Amino acid sequence: MKSVGHDSLKTGRELKVDGKTYHYFSIPEAEKTIGDVSRLPVSLKVLLENVLRFEDARSYTQDDAKAIAGWLPAGSSTKEVPFKPSRILMQDFTGVPGVVDLAAMRDGIVDLKGDPEKVNPLVPVNLVIDHSVMVDVYGTKDALQKNITIEFDRNGERYAFLRWGQEAFKNFSVVPPDTGICHQVNLEYIAQVAWTAEVGGKEYVYPDTLFGTDSHTTMVNGLGVLGWGVGGIEAEAAMLGQPIAMLIPDVIGFKLTGKLPEGATATDLVLTVTQMLRKKGVVGKFVEFFGPALDHLPVADRATIANMAPEYGATCGFFPVDKLTLDYLHETGRDAHRLKLVEEYYRAQGMFRTPEMADPVFTDTLELDLSSVVPSISGPKRPQDRVVLTDATSAFEKELTAGLGVPANDIDKKASVAGTNYEIGHGDVVIAAITSCTNTSNPAVLIAAGLVARKARALGLTPKPWVKTSLAPGSQVVTDYLNRANLTEDLDAMGFNTVGYGCTTCIGNSGPIADNIVDAIEGNKLVAVSVLSGNRNFEGRISPNVRANYLASPPLVVAYSLLGTMRQDITTAQIGTSKDGKPVYLKDIWPSNKEIADLMGSAITREQFIERYAKASIGPQEWQDLKVATGSQTYAWDGKSTYVQDPPYFKGMGVEPAAGAGDVKGARILALLGDNITTDHISPAGSIKKDSPAGKYLIEHGVEPKDFNSYGSRRGNDRIMVRGTFANIRIKNEMLPGTEGGLSKHFPDGKEGFIYDVAMQYKAEGTPLVVFGGKEYGMGSSRDWAAKGTLLLGIKAVIAESFERIHRSNLVGMGVLPLLFKEGTTRKTLNLKGDEVIDIVGLETITPRMDVTLVITRADGTKDEVQLLCRIDTLDEVEYYRHGGILQYVLRGMLEAA
């Protein structure tokens, strides 16, 4: 916190804890002026405190505080308020381009005769390197070390760049690779719930809040820390001191009652919650959980639910601070003073939940009795598509023909696997992965997985030979308690050796499947299956060779590795044969709730967290041995690098923005896209194919295909990323019916080619581009490259039926227009083919949410005009767009402040 406001509401107060004095801005004192907020949702009280702390009669005003206090749950607010988070959390896929942009901003400010030291984060930034490790080696005791070695061979250049950033920038720290995933490290270590900072010689205390450059930042809401995922662009602006304007959100109250029944897990609970909230419709809204079940719902379960807010579409899924929050802080090694400070501060603010408190007033509510939760999985393409476990096989059989396009007379096809004595067919599980995100913050489900492995091992069972098994814990503490519970050996025996402490399979870093299995899948067009304990299963995400992906609890992942197929009902089928010849069923290897609880009680200790996180900054030997150039204010770019390049955003930038952007004239359509286009479809992710534009670029620059690494690992190189934008193998451009992949057509000649090649041809001709989409355009992970790549392809506007919140914001942040069809109009009602010429008229003077005119000139010369809604939503966003993007706006502001 760089500064505090003038406090014209006079809410400044003191709080003494253990004899230490803290200053804070009192919500109860503010009530004397702004009115009663006792039943305001706690998540909105956090926003209110932010206004009170920074209130200065300019950017933050009394009217902002009164607007939050007078929030009307009966209807959506049209009032926007500013928000500055306490800190920023990054992972390395989004963090590398973030540091690249900071380094480029230093070059940019030097070019404009400014001081490069002005470019520093103004709030604490923690970057956790967790997205680069791949499952190259698995099922062996040395899998972890071998994967670490390969990881550093691939990523040493990127990692050295991040080490440079840690030395060059103030207020910026890096958690080394193979420590844990950012969300679990955040939950277990970084988060403090009550944040403190010294300003003007005084120690201030305020709510711990954050933006994260990963959509699952919401996981920390389970700890009562308000935060959500934003694009890297938005995060960079926030770390550079820019308040983010946001409409006061609707808050949906989700009442939880009862207790989970025997056999149900936190995964089953979150899949049920996700399905309910997707059906309810909570995109762009806060969800706040309340009800008597919170009296006994542990933070690990809350974090599992909060983690999947992006999957149910909400900005966040928030749990208020209460006694169980304090218990978790103690269990994970926070000091006694911090616990006292958290409790006393939140009680003083009227934000500490107790069973006696009246329920808040919400926009709307829904309710779930936890005792009604049953074992479930979700898939095969979306996390909200929950299937009751007993119905999983019948649902998959229907999906095979209806959704996955397998002819009915072909569903029982079998294919031999070269060099083996087995065959595989449609529905066989080829990946079974216990992944870090969502589930490995939760010891109950990991202990359960270990117990399933123990019981299976005792009976002599092993996974099917075609299944690639892996365990990627979310933190090293997981290994400690699995070791203490004597479960590691059992998991290893089932092939679930630890492969790395990172995101792995859930983000597409599942690594290669054996060549002979891939040959059988691809040669026979089989629908192979993955089962993972993650939160994302979008088409084409997990592996290019796997078309059906299911989310499941860790113990179910182990069980499915034994069964090896989705074509049999796991609840009734024989999973295997014991060493004494008896059939084994799921019920024979499933642990009881008591078994799990007893083992958790003896295996997990506070000391494990203290000891592990005392070494959090050390990293493996490979990290310690990196050679890093230090001492320079600006980065020495290497023109030959294929990992890190100086991006073009600030090249030729003037001290003042150019005159108004004006109308878009004579544009061509690059893509016509359908509903549910995700950032996975838009942004480069996963493996790089050698015949793709990015693959050709790497080969031209001397990189062998075996060393391509992933798109995510090369996000610091705009030359590669722009070539991979819209290049997902499953994306369907309606301009080329019947095709998949990143293809387009150039007009007027009608020549087909990769989207990148077509876009570059248009760019050489000076032709602007537009993209059309359907509903929920840009859903999924918060990927800044989905917006950056869109800009660099020459796309001036994206026109869709609806936008996902983060991606819409990112488009504006990169200077790309997000435009919305009016009700009743779509690309289909307009009968667009892709050969039309597009004009967008009315952009000379932009105001928030104004109407603009779309002019369509068809190939035969006829014209149509329709009205669109410009989704530049706030005055701040108008400024970002006027400056050509949010980073240009911030950089010019730094020059003025110099």
Describe the model.
The structure is a single chain. By secondary structure, the protein is α/β, with parallel strands linked by helices. Among the domains are: 376-604, Aconitase, domain 3 (2-Layer Sandwich); 664-683 and 725-882, Alpha-Beta Barrel (Aconitase, domain 4). The chain has 30 helices and 34 strands. A seven-stranded mixed beta barrel has the order 26-29-30-31-34-33-32. A hairpin with a 6-residue loop joins β18 and β19 (423-425). α25 (718-724) packs across α27 (784-792). It is globular, with a radius of gyration of 27 Å. It starts with 11 loop residues before the first strand and ends with a helix. The model has no long low-confidence stretch (mean pLDDT 93). Its EC number is 4.2.1.3. GO terms for molecular function: 2-methylisocitrate dehydratase activity; 4 iron, 4 sulfur cluster binding; aconitate hydratase activity; metal ion binding; RNA binding.
- Which class of the domain at 376-604 in CATH terms? Alpha Beta
Helix content: 25-40%
- Give me the CATH architecture of the domain at 376-604, please: 2-Layer Sandwich
Strand order of the largest sheet: 26-29-30-31-34-33-32
CATH homology-level superfamily of the domain at 376-604 = Aconitase, domain 3
Structural class: alpha/beta
Radius of gyration: 27 Å
Average residue pLDDT:
93
The total count of helices amounts to: 30
Largest sheet: 7 strands, mixed, barrel
CATH topology of the domain at 376-604: Aconitase, domain 3
β-strand amount: 15-25%
Uncertain regions spanning at least 5 consecutive residues? none
What is the global morphology?
A: globular
Number of separate strands: 34
Distance between the termini: 20 Å
Keywords: 4Fe-4S, Iron, Iron-sulfur, Lyase, Metal-binding, RNA-binding, Tricarboxylic acid cycle
EC number: 4.2.1.3
Protein name: Aconitate hydratase
Pathway: Carbohydrate metabolism; tricarboxylic acid cycle; isocitrate from oxaloacetate: step 2/2; Organic acid metabolism; propanoate degradation
